[in-house]
């Protein structure tokens, strides 16, 4: 996975669900899938698949929730 991320310029943290516990709990039907989880543990956004064009949207959504948590 690290080589895949490196060749595509992906620098955010990602986790691998070896035993599929998380996939089963959240009913994940495909990979990759990205969850934006707020500080209270609520899922605020789900992206199915991956497109490098989404990077800006990822940043904007993360910044929006970080800003909310400090207000």
Explain how this protein is built.
- By secondary structure, this protein is α+β, with helices and mostly antiparallel strands.
- It has one domain (2-70).
- Helix content is 38%, strand content 15%.
- The chain contains three helices and two strands.
- It has helices spanning 2-7, 21-25, 55-70, and strands at residues 33-37, 43-48.
- It has a two-stranded antiparallel ribbon with strand order 1-2.
- The longest helix has 16 residues, at 55-70.
- It is globular, with a radius of gyration of 13 Å.
- The chain starts with a helix and ends with a helix.
Short description:
With 71 residues, the protein is α+β, with helices and mostly antiparallel strands. The chain contains 3 helices and 2 strands.
